[in-house]
Amino acid sequence: MPQISLHTQVGDLTLSEEAGCIVALDWGWGRDQTETPLLLRARAQLNTYFDGEPVMFDLPLAPAGTGYRRRVWAALCRIPLGEVRTYAEIAREAGGGPRSVGGANASNPIPILIPCHRVVATGGIGGYSGGDGLQTKRALLALEAHASGRPPGAGQATLWDATSALCPEP
Description:
The chain is α+β, with helices and mostly antiparallel strands. Helix content is 36%, strand content 12%.
């Protein structure tokens, strides 16, 4: 499986590609580095994102997961840059309850591109299992607030349309 890594302010990240789609974004530096056109494009878009510039992610994504998890992940992708939603709001959109949304977030194989960090608890920031946990979640939210030019929760500009970006299930 082709992989490519990049250094970011939230740690090293490794992207993986399979069948022409991004299937994973993992924390850490991958052992093997294989440059493909898709992985190079993904790395360039992530570098733009981490430079604090607005970016339109237009990458084909194929996260492995149940139908329910894929519905949750699609709902996450509709959260605009610089905004957050609660676990309860995502549950109303995708079905299930706040805990099941949290479980889907925790199993998200493509964090950042599928922005699970944009989901917060009704009374606080909630959890985050990527990178250094809540420190990473706060850093990503701050980066996006700066890139969007507005505080989280303002405006309606979208980062990308995930429904069209998700690859069909195998």
